[in-house]
Amino acid sequence: MPNIKSQKDRVVQAAAEQAHNKAIKTNLKTVVKKADAAIDANAADKDATVLAAVSVIDKARAKGVIKKNTASRKISRMAKRANKNA
């Protein structure tokens, strides 16, 4: 545990940021799994589910939770799978 006040504050801030990022990543994984399941099942709401997943991926990228290329790769692969099963 740090002795300097500013470093004590940084420990608290880092913990809060870590919890925030974890929540975003958990939601991201959930939405991507739902989209993958909709693609596999060729569900009627497949397009809406994929669009929602792309939106969540873009928001995570904008907030800096995932890197730009990671977001692009996830979106590209999902779109490729969705269009293949169209």
From TrEMBL:
Q: Which residues form a coiled coil?
A: none
Q: What cellular component GO annotations does this protein have?
A: cytosol; small ribosomal subunit
| UniProt cross-references to InterPro entries, sorted A to Z | Ribosomal_bS20, Ribosomal_bS20_sf
**Gene Ontology MF term list:** small ribosomal subunit rRNA binding; structural constituent of ribosome
Is Lyase among the key words of this record?
no
A single GO BP term for this record reads: translation
Keyword rRNA-binding tagged:
yes
* Key words of the record: Ribonucleoprotein, Ribosomal protein, RNA-binding, rRNA-binding
Protein family according to the UniProt entry: Belongs to the bacterial ribosomal protein bS20 family.
Per its database record, what is this protein's job? Binds directly to 16S ribosomal RNA.
What is this protein's name?
Small ribosomal subunit protein bS20
Gene that encodes it: rpsT
